[in-house]
Fold:
Amino acid sequence: MQIDRYSRPAIAMHWLVALLIVGGFALGLYVADLPLSPAKFKLIAWHKWIGITVLTLAVLRLVYRLVNGAPPLPESTQGLMRAAAHAGHLALYVLMFAIPLTGWAMSSAYGFPVVLFKLWQLPELVGRDEALGDLLKSVHQWLNWSMAACVAGHVAAAFKHHFVDRDGLLWRMSPHAQRR
Amino acid sequence: MRLITALTLATLPVLALAQPIDAAKSQIGFTMKQLNVPVDGRFKAFNANIDFDPAKAAAGRADITIQTGSIALPTRDAEGEAKKKEWFNTTQFPTARFVTSSIKPLGGDRYQFSGKLTIKGTTRDVSAPFTAKSTGGQTLVEGVLPISRTAYKIGEGEWADDGTVADAVQIKFKVALNGK
Structure:
């Protein structure tokens, strides 16, 4: 059975964002409890740059998807599973925006603005307020654990299709076409 | 009565030298940069003995003592760090001091001061332009003094490397003098 694949740009952006999300998540988790040091400042800067890059790519992906659409879900996915698949993808998109935005706002609230790649200072999303920064930090962390859960579900569902249902679903998002 | 006389005598020499300052409109702050991210701070407690009449600028003088422990930074974490031995070492050096050696007019409302700045036991000659604007019985003195933080050993050990926290720090002062 030959199924519709995602387009090359969609595949490239998917994997690039996947890599950045995993990297940014791990970096954020590691750096959160580090004592202050020059290394911590550097890692936080990289974490922020990764987040803003994800946000930028999320905008591109959303626009691209709205313009070009996405291949339909496999015929075998029906009813509740179809709804769950759509909800899961919607959640991933919402989090791709919400996580960088809360991180950015948290930087503004804490008074450590984001200077992307040491070059461009981004505007402040909220005023200076340490208590608001603490709140945004909690929300940012909570959203990240939600993202981890969604990504786990996303990967589990893809594997279930590919290895249990054997419907070749992973080829939809593979950089290489299925060998026949 | 005797108490009042004693108090008057005790405060008289200070009053004779210095103009009272409007604390609400006066501020000694600074901006440092870490990986090009501007971070603002200030010192909440300082005593300013200033005698400055824009018409007789050359006769003006200032002696400012700053309580280093009153440092305010965007977060409590950063404040705690700044008080440590590697930074201001506020236990051993509770005050920083600035004393003018000369003031000269540059024309208009602009002036240049030269003086000695002592931070963390290190004294350096400093000089910077400032403005003095008189309105409604008050003179607002304002300027920026760029310094090298490492010249005063602010940020020792791993922090001495200016690759993360830049060496250049801008001290921003604003003092509202009552009278004249």
Summary: The longest strand of chain A covers residues 115-116. The longest helix of chain A spans residues 130-164.
